[in-house]
Amino acid sequence: MPATSRFFSAAAGGVTGAGLCVGALAIGGVFDDSPTQIVTAAPPAASSPAVRATPAAAGSLAALYEQTSPSVVEIRARDGGKGRATAPTPRSPDPRSPSPQPPSPFPDPRGRDGVATGSGFVVDADGTIITNAHVVGDSKDVTVRFDEDDDPVRAEVRGTDPSTDIAVLKIDPEAAGGRVEPLPLAKAGDANVGDTALAIGNPFGLERTATAGIISATGRQIEAPNGFSIAGAIQTDAPINPGNSGGPLLDGKGRVLGVNSQILTGGSQGNVGIGFAVPSTTVAEVLPDLKAGRKISRPYLGVSTTERPSGDGALVAAVVRGGPGDDAGLRARDVVVQIGDTRIERPDDVAAAIEGRKAGDRIELTVTRDGARRTLEVKLGSRPASVR
User: Fold this and answer.
1) Looking at 161, 165, 251, 349, which residue is catalytic?
2) If we measure between CA atoms, which residue out of 167, 127, 128 comes closest to residue 290?
């Protein structure tokens, strides 16, 4: 397989129904047209397959790799990885000087042959596979391969969720030779800063590459392909590069902590040691619906919020014209201090307060405006396909 790569980076400011995410992001898992040359001291002999001289020590990274790597696959999606759709434009805090829309960190990842390439992993013995939504895009022509020498296995796209950047595929286990070994998903609280993290994927087309590091932080907020934000992302310094997208970030027990999705580039052309994975708890949340082919509907407030320069609460940065918040009289520069019985101390609390509610539910929003407290009743809407 030719090793080719495209590295995208952009200044990203993702406006969300509950928060504002700003960062320079790049997609790990997309290729372009320029070949990457790999030089070796001498070509390997055809009759000398890679064989471990001694068994891997129990508890070592080598043993962890041997245990989990058979569950990691290469994914190819023809006409996949398409960019985001459009949606209502948020209202600028100052209507006289509207803020320009930030560039998308999710540009079209297709190479010259129209194929997006990434990674994935088996999550169920029935042939269910997890990857990133930005790898699959709108493609219905998707194949997976467990080993470089295997024939590709056709995969059915059961569902994609751009709001979490998760896609669910399904293959026939028999078509894969019965080698379908699921990886367990970690639970809430399993990811701790400083713990070992192992990433497995296909960076630059290099099959089943392992990179290791630690969990650098938890609870990060990153931008989804549709411009909304993903809460609870895991930050790691395990090197993640183009081609890793959709692959697993594993803990020392072989549990999937998250799905490798993005890296911070800082304007460089390579990994700088800051990568992000969509948390396993989010995967577990959307998996049943996506596996069943059901579209996921989420409540929508129609505002973006940011940190206050001082004090508690979430400062309203923008209000979507005609959205639920706009209809209820919410304005830019209001400070949200309470939703129902939940006190709001920071922007992430807004998303948490409406999580689990449905479109059509009515909530009471307490805000401060010009030094006075006001209570607004908001009828939640249904989140649009994109923030644009």
Assistant:
1) 165
2) 167
